[in-house]
Amino acid sequence: MAAIPAAAAAAYQSIANIGSSASTATGAGAANATGAGSFTDFLNGAVKDGIQTMKTGEHLATQQVAGQANIVDVVNAVNSAELTLDTVVAVRDKVVQAYQAIMNMPI
Fold this sequence. Notes:
Layout: H1 3-26, H2 28-33, H3 39-65, H4 71-103
Helix pairs in contact: 3-4
């Protein structure tokens, strides 16, 4: 069963390499000139926003422990971080479910 995660990691790496080589080969500037970004750019932005939300929640919680933050701001930041984490977990579960569905398809 350990071969499946390794195969998934290898597949992910090869897809990441295809995406990066395709964007450089076709010219990423052409896609951005029309106002449409690539799916990779969208995912990178979403991940960075999620990480920033989590860091903000942690930072405000730390400040609250030191007595330097407003409790309302802390609660809002922590709730936002929790919602972000729930969203990331849900997306991860859907990706794993899709991967399993593809692997179970008959050839």
